[in-house]
Every structure is written in C-alpha cells, then in structure tokens.
Amino acid sequence: MSQAGIIIANITVLVALGILTLSLVGVNELKLPPQANGTHTGYPVWHPPLSNSDEQVNAATIIYSAVLMIIGGALAYKWTNFDTKTNSKLLTYFVDRELNKVPTIEFDRYLASYCLITSLTGIVYYLIDVGKIWATVGVLHNANEIIIMVSLHQGGRITSNSVLAWLLFYVLFAGALSIYLEWPFDALWFKVQGLCSDFALVIQFTRIYFNTSKEYGHESHQRLFDPERPRRDNTSGENAVAVTETIEDRALGPFRPCYILLLVLASSLHIFGNILTTIWIYNFHSYVIFSFTYCITYPLYAYFVYLDTHTYAIPPAQKYIILPDPSKLKVILVTLSSIFLAILTARIGIIVQG
Fold first, then answer.
1. Would you list the DSSP string of 6-35?
2. pTM higher than 0.70 for the full model?
C-alpha cells in the first residue's frame, strides 16, 4: 500500500472510530446488567448472574486451562535453552526492512512467560472470579502482550531503555482505572483495553505470516546470512542430508514458514473467546468456551516455540521470519484499527443486551 493509501486508511478508520464512539453517548445505564457475586469472596464481579450455570464444569475448565498453560510455558522455556553456538542452524532470525537480523530466542521466551503469567490469571480467576481484585493480576496478562508487540516493533527484541518505564506506567494506569472506576465502567475499561491488545496481536501475527510467505527465500535475505554465497546455490540432496547429520538429536526437521500460522491461529482463538463473552455476557456457555480456548491457544504458542527451536535450515535456505513494516503510519493504522474493533465489539454487546 502506498503512503497516500495508508493516510487515507488512517483517516477512514479515525472517522469510523469517532462515529462509533459518539454512538455510545446515548446508552442508557439503567439497561446495563447487574453484577453477580464472586463464588468464593462474595464481592461483586464483572459479569451478571448466569442462569443454568454449572460451577463444576466452569471450575474444571479453568483449572484444566491453567495446568496446560503451566506445562506449555515451562516446556517453552526449556526448549529455548540450548547451545546456540554448536547448534547455530537451529536458530531462527527476525529480519526487518533494513535487513537487520535478530535471533527469535528472546521472543520465544516472551511467549513462554506469556503462557505462565496467563496461567496465574486463570488460577486467580478460579479463586475469586473476574473483578477488581482479579484485575491486579489480569493486567499483567495484557502487559505481556504489549511486551510481545513492542519486541516485534523493535526488530525482535526490546532495545529501548524507556520501555520498562512506559510498561510500568501502563500497569499502574490500567490497574488504577480498573480498581477505582464504578461499575460498569471498570469492567468496560478493562475489557476494551484487553480487546485492543488482542486484536493488535492478531493483526501483527497475520502481517508477519503474509510477509514471510511472500518474501521468504528472496536473494537479499539469503545473502544477509551468507554474503559470500553465490547467487545460485543448487545444493544437492546428499549435501543437505550431511548438514542435518551435524545437528544434535533435538532437530525435528526442516524449517517451514507456515509454522507462523500457529501464532495467527492461537491469537485468533483467544480473541474469538473474548468476543463471545463481550457480546453474550448472560450466556454461561460463552464463558466456558472462552476458558476452553486457553486450553488450545497457549499450548499452540508453546508448540510454535518447539518448532522454532527444533527445526533447521537446509542450505541454501535459512531460518528467518520477516517482520512487518514498523513505520509510524502503519503503527497508527494498526493501533486505530485495534481500538475500533475493540469498541465495536463492546457496542455490539450493548446492542445484544437490549
């Protein structure tokens, strides 16, 4: 897309966002749902009373997802711990527009911590349900998503010294609003800002997949890894096999760009469940489905780490993932689109509630 096209897209989304925001002005607070009380604490929580609910099924699903996330996160950390010097062919690199390359190991560890931190939010959810107290832990889940997106924006790893300060500000600001706003604005705030980061992850992972699928194998990228390599390197199958024999037994098979689809699928499942509970807030099954998506989403992230650290490149191919354009206009477009989709989801939820 040309720069003019990006500017037009930004203006279009901004106008749509303004119209959508104005549509919220006339919402009648009296029609908003009442709060249920937490099972274990008795405190008001961020959802209405659910009819025909089965507490045993709900608790079992939450615990099941937490266990799978803990296992996935622990294994993902374990898989990132290998000797990169003796197993350099197992390393994958992020490549940006300036042809800078950065190993994906740090990103893989962010995914591992994402699994573990989210498992903590699941455990607290089981103990006290989703509400103001839960938000003190739940905000860490969103903070981890921000870390992942910032690392991708900065080429595959966080390089700015100010990121930690901004992240701390976000945690304090988002947590404070979640605690001190009155119902329903506390829940609405937390839900919308969480949807924003969820939509942004889906958009960014999708951009990465299409970028890599389109440009993987381009000569400029190949020569980045081996500047002395001739332009046409018809490595025979016998030499390719010899390469694999030098790698440790941990090698699984050759690298495929389609593995990035795991990131797209995982983030899409997560946002799907989040949308369900935003629109059908009275439906018990929407909450169970959302909880069950965690059983799939975070093991998928762990599986991506497994493939990323256990596949190899057969020369002349290399292992690399092409990052999307981090220009300001593109970042603004992704940000505005994510905010628009988040508020649109909340608006649809209000309409469905009557």
1. HHHHHHHHHHHHHHHHHTTTT--GGGSPPP
2. yes
Sheet holding 101-103, edge to edge: 101-103, 93-95, 320-322
What percentage of the chain has pLDDT greater than the value 90? 54
End-to-end CA distance of the chain: 40
Q: Which residue has the tokens 């059908």?
A: 280
Closest CA to 91 of 212, 220, 250: 250
Torsion angle of C-alpha atoms 128, 129, 130, 131, degrees rounded to 10: -50
Reduced 3-state DSSP string for 331-343: HHHHHHHHHHHHH
Q: Which tokens belong to 329?
A: 């206009």
Query: What is the Cβ-side half-sphere exposure of residue 322, based on CA atoms within 13 angstroms?
Result: 23
Would you say 320 and 211 are in contact if contact means Cβ atoms under 8 Å apart?
no
Q: What residues are paired with 312 via a beta bridge?
A: 254
- Could you check whether the bond before residue 49 is cis, i.e. omega within 30 degrees of 0? no
pLDDT for res 183 = 87
Res. 196: pLDDT tops 90? yes
Give φ, ψ of 280 to 5 degrees.
Answer: -110, 70
Distance of alpha carbon 65 from alpha carbon 300, whole angstroms: 12
**DSSP letters for 102-136:** EESHHHHHHHHHHHHHHHHHHHHHHHH-SSHHHHH
241 pLDDT band (50/70/90 cuts)? very low
Contact 92, 308 (CB under 8 A): yes
pLDDT score of 236: 41
* 143 pLDDT above the threshold of 90: yes
Please give the structure tokens belonging to residue 227: 């500047």
Residue of 212, 314, 222 whose CA lies nearest to 263: 212
How high is the pLDDT of residue 198?
96
Identify the pLDDT of residue 280: 92
